[in-house]
Amino acid sequence: MNDRPKIAIYWLGACGGCDSSLIDLGESLLELAEAVEIVIWPVALDFKHDRLAALPDKSLALAIISGCVRNSAHREMAELLRAKSCVVLACGACACLGGIPGLANLRPKGEIMAWVYGEAPTVVNPERIRPERNCEMNGEQLELPEFYDHVYALNQVVAVDYYLPGCPPPLDLLLGAIQGLLGNQPPPPGSILASAKSLCDSCSRNRTKPARMELKTVSRPHETVVEPEACFLAHGVICLGPVTRDGCGGSCLSVNAPCRGCFGPVAGVCDSGARFLASLASLLAPGDEAEFRALVEAIADPAGYACRFTQPVSILGARKLEAEDKQ
């Protein structure tokens, strides 16, 4: 009789990077596959939806779910996995925070559809054909999932037990999370399985930061040169390290790119984007009103910068745009 714990791995609205990280576990993944029974993992194994649906409720020890919820098919699978699982792990920035797909919340659904199926320069669609939820083909009725007006993080749709942020989560945290949640002493429910401190606390560039920072200029990364050991913010390049949870290993910083916030807010902060914009405003040091306006205008996309990975769970995410179809 097979008494190995059953797990499910599923990918909702995302790029697949979290699944790639699981595959990158290499030999550790083979060891995991021997210790558990993987009931469903569409990206790697040919197990079907019906097999999952036929299982008794709470028969899975763990469901690892990556990706945001953008349509009704995502919601259906999230609810099914929740019902079948004792523990649900939101894996990656999209599941934990909404991720980069969540930036779509800054535009109405109709505007997005109009761009994708008509206005984008690479689109050839003179008849302006749009996807229809229901249609008939060869005598069969076909149905597409409902495309929601809003992008949701996983815990805005179903109850989540644990969170592992990152885009994607690093291999050591990913393996540690799975082993810990399947072990005899799992962390307290609701835990974020990463450091509570900010990335700045472990960043080697922090020692070059001045005691009092004042920004006379604001530049995008391609507009200036920042030495590999220098603090990005001290050189006017937006870096979310001060408000972003540590745990990524500084992978962006190691290739001389500023932090974009994929690990989400530090402990005690609900909205890292709002916190960062407030702190950034306090650093601006213009000489006069004209310089102030120039500094503000240099921040080309404040919402995109500050909420790149967190829009659905931010203050902005609570605001839902009207979704009128654009003809």
UniProtKB/TrEMBL annotation:
<keyword id="KW-0574">Periplasm</keyword>
<dbReference type="GO" id="GO:0051536">
    <property type="term" value="F:iron-sulfur cluster binding"/>
</dbReference>
<dbReference type="Pfam" id="PF01058">
    <property type="entry name" value="Oxidored_q6"/>
</dbReference>
<dbReference type="GO" id="GO:0042597">
    <property type="term" value="C:periplasmic space"/>
</dbReference>
<dbReference type="InterPro" id="IPR006137">
    <property type="entry name" value="NADH_UbQ_OxRdtase-like_20kDa"/>
</dbReference>
<dbReference type="InterPro" id="IPR051349">
    <property type="entry name" value="Hydrogenase_assoc-protein"/>
</dbReference>
<dbReference type="InterPro" id="IPR037024">
    <property type="entry name" value="NiFe_Hase_small_N_sf"/>
</dbReference>
<protein>
    <recommendedName>
        <fullName>NADH:ubiquinone oxidoreductase-like 20kDa subunit domain-containing protein</fullName>
    </recommendedName>
</protein>
<dbReference type="GO" id="GO:0016491">
    <property type="term" value="F:oxidoreductase activity"/>
</dbReference>
<feature type="domain" description="NADH:ubiquinone oxidoreductase-like 20kDa subunit">
    <location>
        <begin position="15"/>
        <end position="179"/>
    </location>
</feature>
<keyword id="KW-0560">Oxidoreductase</keyword>
